[in-house]
Structure formats: C-alpha cells, structure tokens
Design goal:
This protein is of the alpha+beta class. Helices cover 30% and strands 27% of the residues. Bound molecules: adenosine monophosphate (AMP) and magnesium ion (MG).
C-alpha cells in the first residue's frame, strides 16, 4: 500500500469560492469541484442566504457538497422554501442514501441484504434500485451501484476531507479482491409490493453516482408544490436543476466547468424551463502520484479509475437520476459508446476530452455556446 499526499479543495475554500462568485453574474450556476467526507451536517452548514432583486440566493452544505440556490419568489416565502429544500436534502442523505449514516436505508441494506430472506425495501428505494440496475445493464456494467467495497478500498470519501494529510492507494491484489465482491448482475430484486433485495456476502451498495440526481428530481417535486416559486436554479456540486421561468423571461444559463482550469468554463448551456444537468469529471475528487491522477470514477472492468481520454462529461436530461447515472456511465464508456447510450435515454451529452476537444451530441449543440476564451 503506497501513501501519497492528497490534492483536494477543502470545503471552506469551496464555500468561499461560491460566495466570491455570487456577484460575478457569468451564469446562474457554475458546476464546481465537490467536497465530500465527514464534514457535512450542522457543523459545516453555513447559510449565507440573502434576498435581493426578487430572488433568494444562498450557499449551504448538504450531501457532502456545496448547495447553491437561487429561488425567484416573494421575499416572505423565499427563505422558507429554501430551508425546506435543505431539509429535504438532509433527510434524503440521512434517511435514504448514505452508506455511512446508520439511520439510512442504504446502510440498512448493506448490513442485512446478504442475510437469508434478503431485506425488505420501501417502494421508492425498490424503484430507484430497479432503475439503476437497468442502466447498469444497458451500459454494459460501466455504471454499477454495487461498487461499495471497491470505493471503500480506494477510500474515495476521504480524498476530499479537510484535514486528511495522507492517502493510501491499494495494491493490485486488494483491488482484485474488492472487485470480486461487486457486480450488479449478482443483485436480486423482487419488485412490486413487498419488494425485497438479496445481495451476496461482502457486497456493498454505493449510490454516490446517482444521489445528487435523485435529489434534483425530489427538489423539482417540492418546487412544483410551491406555486409561489416562479423559477429556480439549484446546484448540488456537479448536478444542477433549472425550474420555471426567470422574471425577465431570459433562459437559465448553466456554465460547464473547464477541467483544465476549474475556475473557468468551456461554455454555457442556455435552458428554458425544467432541466437537469449532471457533470462527472476527473477533477472533482482525486489524488496525484508520480504524475498519475487517481480520480473517483472507477471502471468496474478493471477496478481502477476509468481511463478513456475523457476529462469531463455533462449530461442534459429532464430527469435527475438519468442525468447523474449517465454522466458517470459516459465518463467510463467514452464518447463513442457514451453518446449512443445517452441517445437511447433521450439525453444530450457533452464530452471534454483530454486533448481539450469538445464532443457534443447533435441535440446538445442547440443549447451550448462555447466560451470564446476556451482553447482546445
Ligand atoms: P459522479 O461524480 O456522479 O460521476 O459519481 C462518482 C461517485 O460514484 C464516486 O465517488 C463513487 O462513489 C461512485 N462510483 C465510482 N465509479 C462508479 C461506477 N462505475 N458506477 C457507479 N458509481 C460509481
Ligand atoms: Mg453521476
């Protein structure tokens, strides 16, 4: 096991970056590097919300990442809806998706689905797992929610924790062993009422690749039940929801991070109404050693960080789970197979390649304006 120093952006710095960028006006939403680890929760939550020009703007932390909200609503209601959104995210993480928090569904599944009789699933979780298993199959296993043993071995969660000084990388043998415990095809799901899940001993779910996408769809449902909100942009690290209309009728502008300089963008998506944009990039969580970047998107075929000459993939879809799952899958599959996969789900894709080339699906070209200062 080799030990290296980490290269990550601490949470406090990320929050400052958002606050500083708050008035720059380049775009409503700028995907940024994410921060994960143990520091989510009350201790790290900093509500910087304020109301100006008909909109509530706030920066908080939830689901281990920075949450940036812009809500167009009357002054009295805006901050209350914003607080409801934060509550929704904290509950989703704490009660459903976290593999770390022992009150969550995923934690319970990981602890008990290998037992004889498997474990019972609430309807929402059964549906989510069914969708994930389907995407796993159609991506030929590139996207796989059963990689928990492998992501745990790589210790990805710790890579962006503040205060972590050293990171250890696993040996080839360890990778092989962890990989033998993974594989969506080994999951057995009995769906419908009284759904149950069966997993082999040692297998662990990791829903990190879809959690924020699921959150986008839940937030959209919440906003639909709050007619006082006429428009919104909510950014969860690399995943962004646009909703409704801006008071001046202009489109939402979502910047796509430049992987070569994450303070910059490669261009802007101009979007009308409700959309989900998810980005997976090798710059979000990584360590570097001997000139090699070990990032957090693992290829289930090898057990190592995916290497398909891709630096970042952004997926545009009406649905959050799809945009998030597909961005991860497409990163691993590369542009050729990835485009084909996204197309099958009616989603649009934008790849930033390691030589700087931008590869866009035909549909994506309608929404994307390249940044004049971005050079291949
Ligand atoms: P994303 O940033 O949405 O691409 O998600 C990356 C996260 O998903 C990682 O931090 C892991 O927790 C998990 N993950 C890594 N590789 C995969 C994969 N091939 N399929 C599904 N989840 C993965
Ligand atoms: Mg994803």
């Amino acid at each position: 096991m080799k030990i290296f120093f980490q290269r990550t952006v601490p949470m406090a710095a990320l929050i400052m970056a958002f606050i500083l960028c708050g008035g720059c006006g380049a775009a409503e939403s700028m995907p940024r590097e994410e921060a994960y680890g143990d520091q989510s929760g009350e201790e790290m939550r900093r509500n910087t919300g304020q109301y100006a020009e008909g909109a509530w703007r706030s920066t908080d932390v939830a689901m281990g990442t920075v949450i940036q909200q812009t809500l167009y609503a009357p002054r009295e209601e805006a901050s209350a809806v914003s607080a409801e959104c934060m509550e929704l995210l904290e509950k989703l993480e704490g009660e459903e998706l976290s593999w770390r928090l022992d009150g969550s569904e995923v934690y319970r599944i990981n602890a008990s689905a290998h037992e004889e009789g498997g474990c019972a699933l609430p309807e929402d979780m059964a549906l989510l797992l069914e969708q994930c298993m389907e995407i796993s199959e159609s991506s030929e296993g590139a996207f796989d929610i059963t990689l928990g043993s492998l992501t745990g071995l790589w210790n990805i969660d710790r890579w962006a924790s503040e205060g972590v000084q050293e990171v250890s990388l696993p040996s080839g043998e360890e990778v092989k062993e962890a990989l033998s415990l993974c594989g969506s095809e080994k999951l057995k799901l009995e769906s419908g009422p009284g759904a149950r899940l069966f997993m082999p001993e040692g297998m662990r779910l990791d829903l990190g690749a879809v959690g924020k996408g699921v959150a986008l769809s839940r937030l959209r449902t919440l906003l639909e039940e709050r007619p006082e909100v006429s428009g919104a942009v909510i950014s969860l690290g690399g995943s962004i929801l646009t909703y409704g209309v801006k008071p001046d009728g202009s489109p939402w502008r979502v910047a796509i991070t430049n992987p070569f300089d994450t303070a910059e963008n490669v261009g802007i998506l101009s979007l009308e109404g409700q959309w989900c944009v998810s980005t997976s990039g090798d710059y979000e969580r990584y360590v570097e050693a001997d000139g090699v970047r070990y990032h957090h998107i693992l290829d289930p075929a090898t057990g190592y960080p995916a290497d398909t000459r891709v630096r970042g993939v952004s997926i545009l879809s009406k649905d959050g789970l799809l945009s998030d799952a597909l961005s991860t899958a497409c990163f691993i599959l590369g542009p050729e197979k990835g485009m084909e996969l996204a197309g099958r789900y009616g989603a649009e894709a934008l790849f930033v390649m390691e030589d700087g080339e931008l590869i866009l699906s035909e549909g994506m070209k309608r929404y994307f304006t390249k940044n004049d200062s971005y050079r291949k």
